[in-house]
Design goal:
The first copy, chain A, is an alpha/beta fold. Chain A contains 16 helices and 7 strands. A 7-stranded parallel sheet of chain A has the order 3-2-4-1-5-6-7, sandwiched between helices. At the A-B interface, helix 5, helix 9, helix 14, helix 15 and helix 16 of A face helix 5, helix 9, helix 14, helix 15 and helix 16 of B.
Chain lengths: ~350, ~350
């Protein structure tokens, strides 16, 4: 059994498995991560995903102690509808980069994964080459929680992967709900994979995706698909022209590739490197990361405030009651909110 | 000077003007509002818009006491780009309905209005017929605050207008930023006005608007515009067909009108009445309002939590410091958030 499969098994039941790993000290974790030990990295991520308070505390300490080793990667978000070939694409791109000397970590954000654990195993198996390569680390989505929680865990895992020396982090999203927005908020570059179709290439695009994309790649541009892929490129370029300029000055390219044939992948990566070079030179790269960090701080604060509120015993006891009154129209939404806030304020949990 | 102009002057400086109206008791306000006294209604809305704590308290009491008179209106949101003719349209529709015996209140949400007070006066003047009619009440956007704050005040004003007997509430948004989403969250029916253009009718649509629209009306469908308006209707119908079905089962119609000529307005209103009839019958109308009320409660709670947090003296004192550390990368976003939360928790403001 290879290391990655072991990682995967641990993620199935983080609370149970993490007990074992609790035996380690913070220093042992940090040293293990920094030395690139994937088993320890994986156990630390399991701690991040645990809902136990002592695990949370421990994982925070690990993270703080790894912090000065983070930041040295290119963070790339990848999205696309199911069937677009994300796993095959990531497999092809990842192996290409590993051959050039890079180390690749692949994380996934899938808020629906708690409902469909099966597909994670499927995804993992499909990254055939990467999943057995010593310079790759694949970690499926945290298997439970709200999008906000899943995203926070993934971002913390990303930092640990950087500390472990992975210099390219791919964050895959399944394109469900708002998961793209979460991924977009933690990456340097956002890649949208698309399929060519029968003349209506733009229908499959979710609202808001075009504005987020730093590049659009038509995958499966091979064989009989090649002509319609070329038309799709043209259509999407026309559509992109309608959007206003990016603050970075970057014009998102539209490219074709075939992960199956391995064509277009090298050219696509060159464009990503161009972007990184260009945006580092202009200062936009660093600026964007700073804004993302502050955004994450603010978001974490707001999440914790809400948690504190809804966990407060008096709020818990009366919330349903106030909701019923609002529904019956005997109290306004504003009054109900004020009363609940008063309960929260009067006696600190 | 007519009553509406007086209302308008008061809204310029709510804090100052509200002092006078503070002389009234809660009962006097409530009786005045319920009897349809527009001057008192206007003063009560001014209290809602005031930032003084005693005014807030008073306005909440007024609202609670009016609550059993609310809910008896059709709430309609209207949006469209500047120049689409919203004011002329509202004027034409409003007078049409008043002739049939309805009472119309027009509220505006414009988070940018604090920057451009001039345009409010302009808008108001353009509703020539409505602004001088005794069965109409026009209130410009609260002149300051975040979108969340402006939206809350507008929703409270909406409830007071209902208590005052207005049975059609039109809420206009200028289509800036996220104001449509705010309006959509407080209305029964969302109407999008559009202009016909030179072959590219769909370009002007902001993302997400199509999903919110319960009807799309091509305004200025008159004279030389008529042919291109017909093409626009067809184009938009095709585009709408790409979206999934509404939970209400309603299929948003696309219509033409000319507010200037007065054509199409009656037909448009009939479709709105159809919607109201249909959705009341199915129970969707009531269900949607309940969901909106709970959403407003939750949103108000979250706003107040944030306010409490950012007003906390220790948080205020250290926030900038933590932001700097996050920017320098000497502390993680999560750690900074936790530390700030600890400050907030340890000593209650």
């Amino acid at each position: 059994m290879n290391q990655n499969n072991e990682n995967f098994n641990e993620s199935i039941n983080p609370d149970f498995k993490a007990k074992k790993s609790l035996m380690r000290s913070v220093d042992e974790y940090v040293e293990g991560i920094v030395s690139g030990n994937r088993t320890i990295l994986s156990q630390a991520i399991t701690l991040i995903e645990s809902s136990r308070e002592d695990h949370k505390e421990l994982s925070r300490e690990i993270l703080e102690n790894c912090l000065d080793r983070t930041g040295n990667s290119v963070r790339i978000g990848i999205t696309g509808v199911p069937g677009v070939g994300k796993s095959t694409f990531i497999d092809a791109l990842g192996i290409d980069r590993i051959v050039k000397g890079d180390k690749i970590a692949v994380l996934t954000i899938d808020p629906s994964s708690s409902l469909s654990k099966g597909s994670i195993l499927g995804d993992k198996t499909r990254m055939e080459a990467l999943s057995v390569h010593p310079d790759a680390f694949i970690r499926p989505s945290p298997a439970s929680g709200t999008l906000g929680g899943v995203a926070r865990k993934t971002r913390e895992a990303l930092l640990l992967c950087e500390a472990a020396g992975f210099n390219i982090i791919l964050i895959e999203t399944v394109g469900v709900g708002q998961s793209e927005t979460a991924v977009h908020s933690m990456v340097d570059f956002f890649l949208v994979l698309m399929l060519t179709g029968a003349g209506d290439e733009l229908q499959g695009i979710k609202r808001g995706i075009m504005e987020m994309a730093d590049m659009i790649a038509i995958n499966k541009a091979d064989g009989a698909n090649l002509d319609s892929a070329k038309r799709a490129v043209q259509q999407i370029q026309n559509a992109l022209a309608l959007f206003s300029d990016r603050p970075s000055g970057w014009k998102p390219p539209v490219v074709m590739c075939s992960a199956m044939e391995g064509s277009g992948i090298i050219e696509l990566w060159e464009k990503i490197e161009n972007y990184v070079h260009q945006s580092r030179k202009s200062g936009y790269f660093v600026q964007k990361r700073k804004v993302q960090s502050i955004d994450w701080m603010v978001e974490t604060i707001e999440q914790q405030l809400k948690e504190m509120f809804y966990k407060h015993p008096d709020v818990k006891r009366h919330l349903m009651d106030f909701e019923n009154k609002v529904n019956e129209g005997t109290i306004s939404s504003f009054k109900a909110a004020s009363e609940l806030i008063k309960l929260f304020e009067s006696k600190k949990s």
